[in-house]
Amino acid sequence: MLQFDFKPRWKEELVCSCALGGFVLEMPMGVISVYLPTKEYWKEVAPTWALELWDALYQQLEEWCETQKIPLYLDGTGYAGVRLDTL
User: What are the residues facing 72 on neighbouring strands?
Assistant: First the structure.
């Protein structure tokens, strides 16, 4: 299974990277949390190389958030705060 690495960085971002590339998810610091697009919305906004990786990403991100005690929210609304900026 492809392994993702998660690293918070300034400007309320969570850098998600793996051997195929990376992208940035929103990680607000006021009330620390992480936003991941729903599986359906992911297909609209994900980098091309990551389109089929939602299940692995979700599982690993959920585990990371649990160990960090950070809430993980799924968002399918297209809310501006959910960004996927390819690195």
Answer: 34
| pTM of this structure | 0.86
- Residues 6 or more apart whose Cβ sits within 8 Å of residue 52: none
Phi, psi of 86 (to 5 degrees): -65, 135
In the numeric block, which tokens belong to residue 74? 């799924």
Amino acid making up residue 56: A
N-terminal to C-terminal alpha carbon distance within the chain? 21
Place of tokens 């900026």: 85
What's the order of all strands across the beta sheet hosting 85-86? Answer: 5-9, 13-18, 21-26, 85-86
Give the pLDDT of the chain (87 residues) as one tens digit per residue.
899 999 998 878 999 999 999 999 989 888 899 999 999 999 988 889 999 999 999 999 999 999 999 999 998 876 544 455 555
Is the CA virtual torsion 42, 23, 60, 14 positive or negative? negative
